[in-house]
Amino acid sequence: MESPKYRALYVVLRDLILSGKLSGGEKLPPSRKIVSELSISRNTVMQAFDILQSDGFIQSRQGDGVYVSEDIGHAHLPQISSSDDVDDRTPDIAGRVQHWMGVRKKHHRLGGERAFSPGRPALDQFPFDIWARLLSRRWRLSGPRLAMQDDPTGYAPLRQELAKYLRKTRGMSCEADQIVIVSGAQQGLDLISRVLWEEGDQIAVEDPAFPGMNGVVLGGGAQIIPVALDDEGICTDPLENLTDLKSIMVTPSRNYPLGTTMSLARRFDLLDLARRKRSWIVEDDFDCEFRFDGPPLSSLQGLDRDERVIYVGTFSRIVFPALRLGYVVVPKKLIDAFVAAKSYIDGHASILHQAVLADFFKEGYFDSHLRRMKKLYKERRNYLMREIELRLSKDCFILPADGGLHICLLFKKEIDDIVLSEDLRQCGVVTRPLSSFYKLSVKKQGLVLGFAGFDEAAIDAGLQHIQKKISEI
Fold first, then answer.
1. Which residue among 40, 192, 245, 260 is least crowded, i.e. fewest CB within 10 A of its CB?
2. CA distance 349 to 334
């Protein structure tokens, strides 16, 4: 929005003073002269003068006009400089932010509305009319009471509903007081890093892995130890050689991006290793609800008998991303520490939307919506896989995908997936290059394709571009 004229005049005069072109004690032109030369109203000039005087840049002398403040002559004024000069003089930003900037630059999401952006749910299928009705009713019935809620663990009825849901569907061993509601899974991971990790701690992370994990580990000053996956999940042998392993971050139900599911034997191996190493396990269950081939898998937390597992979940993919609600299930011995940290970070997530989500659970809308979305996403996954088989089987193959919101496409020939992904983006097709998720030297080349938020027409259009670009290589 364009600034008002008095503000524009204020900026011009202020910059003249700051640059030294108008020095301390110098008299400003009369207001009538400024009015005449700039063709503006006297009121505009007087408003600009009022702000300059309030900020201490000028002084009005009765019967003698307006002068640049005498103090300006003795001040060390900032000079208008090039951005390079400014960068040379300003203090360094914190190291953690430099790490975050690097991760964001490498994995910044673009074009979330276009196929095949991973992680995008079918927002056109969400019952926003029901949500709006629940929101209105909840505010009408208990708005003033909710406005005074300040429990850092979150809205108690939501935590109670969530505990029941996790026990029933994920085989978890938890009570409502072990759940901390957070502003999305990413804040949950950040909360874990603040409570558990010190600078230099060794944190084992799956390779490849969701880039948000890298950001959390590096942002906290800890040390990433990338560990390769095999067909059963994270390899535990490399972890045996680590002498100071603080935590292990895993996605047992479904690795992002490969889609690998951790076997039962490997889960027991990991729990045993964590017990012997006195390490914490962070279980990130970002899209476990969407398993199409068989019943939902039990969580690693449900197998834990030593209270070593901290579980992180999110509602972003089931409800809608902008809700920004997730949760952390913590061992009982860590409850006080997590509550204290959460209270100092941001107090609590939006209580009103937590209350509406609790109603969404209690009145059966959550389960109903989840059933419909599982059916729809399975149909879209199957359609995408059939079309890839028809169009791209000569050049690509699909990694096994029993659930989730994306599939992983691997190349049969030498293709630079980063270059291909950028070429596709220029055509309006959003993919993720598989190699960019790796930290170790052995990398697979391929594309990560989200399907949940896109109908058959969008999938067809996207595949046409992929087919064309690969054929040109």
1. 40
2. 20
Residue 398 to residues 252, 379, 408, 409, Cα–Cα distance (Å): 20, 16, 6, 5
Distance CA 238, CA 235 (A): 7
How many beta carbons lie within 10 A of that of residue 422, not counting itself? 12
Residue 246 and residue 280 in contact, taking contact as beta carbons nearer than 8 Å: yes
Contact status, residue 456 vs residue 383, Cβ threshold 8 Å: yes
Tell whether the model's pLDDT for residue 402 goes beyond 90.
no
What is the C-alpha to C-alpha distance for residues 115 and 431, in angstroms, rounded to an integer? 8
| Per-residue pLDDT tens over the stretch 7-64 | 999 999 999 988 888 888 899 999 999 999 999 999 999 999 999 999 999 999 988 8
Q: How far apart are CA 401 and CA 291, in angstroms?
A: 9
Q: Positive or negative, the Cα torsion across 471, 408, 454, 420?
A: negative
The type of residue at 86 is: V
C-alpha span between 358 and 159 (Å, rounded): 8
Task: Count Cα atoms within 13 angstroms, Cβ side, for 127.
Answer: 16
pLDDT at 81: 54
- Report field, pTM of the whole predicted structure over 0.70: yes
Task: For residue 9, give Cα distances in angstroms to 22, 24, 40, 396.
Answer: 14, 19, 10, 62
Give the separation between CA 468 and CA 466, rounded to whole angstroms: 5
